[in-house]
Amino acid sequence: MLDCAIIGGGPAGLTAGLYATRGGLENVTMFEKGMPGGQIMNSSEIENYPGVTGEITGMDLMTSWPEQCQRFGLKHEMVNVTRVTKNEKLFTIHKEDGTTTDAHSVIIGTGSSPRRVGFNGEDELFGKGVSTCATCDGFFYKNKEVAVIGGGDTALEEALYLAKICSKVYLVHRRDTFRSAPNTIDRVKRTENIELVLNSSPDEVYGDKMGVVGLKVKNKDGQIRDIVVPGVFTFVGNDVNNETLLQEDGSFLCDMNDQGQVIVDISMNTSIPGLFATGDMRIAAPKQVVSAAGDGAVAALQAISYVDELLND
After folding, report:
1. pLDDT at residue number 293
2. What Å distances lie between residue 256 and 82, 150, 259, 272, 282, CA to CA?
3. What are the tens digits of pLDDT across the range 230-275?
4. Neighbour count for residue 163 (Cβ, 10 Å)
5. Exposed e or buried b per residue across 192-231, where buried means at least 16 C-beta atoms within 10 angstroms of its C-beta
6. Which one from 133, 153, 203, 308 is the annotated catalytic residue?
7. Which of 4, 69, 136, 254 is catalytic?
8. Which tens digit of pLDDT belongs to each residue from 154-169?
9. If both were cysteines, with which of 12, 207, 235, 271 could 292 make a disulfide (CB 3.0 to 4.6 Å apart)?
10. Strand partners, 256
11. What is the pLDDT of residues 103-118, one digit of tens each?
12. Catalytic residue flag (residue 137)
């Protein structure tokens, strides 16, 4: 029997583990099918984590986190959790190996996965000039030209953000209209260093051993345009990793919005008492390491209070 089960070993899950164990919960296990650290482990350089200076990779940043948590008693079980259910006051963690574990509370932080566009070279050059986070990587292209792919709110907002840093932004969209707020579209059109490349889709991103060199886009007539840029940012949506909350009857354990994000309050409480959602899988997530870590701390403090009250009833 666990006091708290933590599902996901990214910044949110690790921070939750640290706060839960230091805060007095004795039996806390983090379930993470791979090595802890999360998506940030793939980043080649981190410049915006508070207190961290100099050249550091995502792997460098996260390496010490599991050791710190385990020093206070956090256990790590390397197994894939397939489903979480609740029966009266207890949660059951269903694992891929067929075993189950019961817990008084659950903190889930399985994150989201940026949706890939699917053009040639995208996977091979991801993290080497192809990015899904302008806030994370935009500064590396200061005073350089970049391309942004997408036509929704996020794509346009990130193009505006990059336009303040980069000398020029090519906004590539497969249609001639955008699926974004009218005022955002107007701002994009009025920004001098944003060039709209409409009715066009990415065909291939290419590069060398140093990273991206350029992007080839194909218009609706089949003509290819070669855009020479060292950075390509894709914003075509995220897939929330919410499968663990899916029940056998096809419903979800807790309330979700229409994007599949978990609805939480400011304290990371879901609609199910004792279940807390953190990081990229929750509504309005900033998708930043420091924010996910904050979510984990808040959720752990709430879990401590929940378990104390539950066991003392």
Report:
1. 98
2. 18, 25, 8, 12, 9
3. 999 999 988 899 999 999 999 999 999 999 999 999 999 999 999 9
4. 21
5. eebebbeebbbbebebeeeebebbbbbeeeeeeeebebbb
6. 133
7. 136
8. 899 899 999 999 999 9
9. 12
10. 262
11. 999 999 999 988 899 9
12. yes
Q: What is the pLDDT of residue 39?
A: 83
Decide: 69 and 25 in contact? Cβ < 8 Å: no
CA–CA dist 228, 162 (Å, integer): 17
Three-state DSSP string of 211-235: EEEEEEEEECCCCEEEECCCEEEEC
CB 174 within 8 A of CB 150: no
Cα 263–42–31 angle (5° rounding)? Answer: 50
Q: How far is CA 3 from the centre of its chain?
A: 26
Q: 254 an active-site residue?
A: no
Tell me the two tokens of residue 185: 């579209």
Say how far apart CA 145 and CA 169 lie, in whole Å.
6
pTM beyond 0.85: no
The catalytic position among 3, 4, 69, 137 is 137
The half-sphere exposure of 266 on its side-chain side, counting CA atoms within 13 A, is: 0
Amino acid letter for position 32: E
For 77, other C-beta atoms within 10 Å of its C-beta total 17
Q: Which of 49, 197, 172, 59 is nearest to 122 (CA)?
A: 172
Amino acid at 260: G
Structure tokens belonging to residue 306: 């929940």
* Per-residue pLDDT band at 44 (split at 50, 70, 90): low
Q: How far apart are CA 240 and CA 263, in angstroms?
A: 12
Q: What is the pLDDT of residue 278?
A: 98
Other C-beta atoms lying within 10 Å of the C-beta of residue 60: 15
Cα distance between residue 166 and residue 185, in whole Å: 19
Give the 3-state secondary structure of residue 67. helix
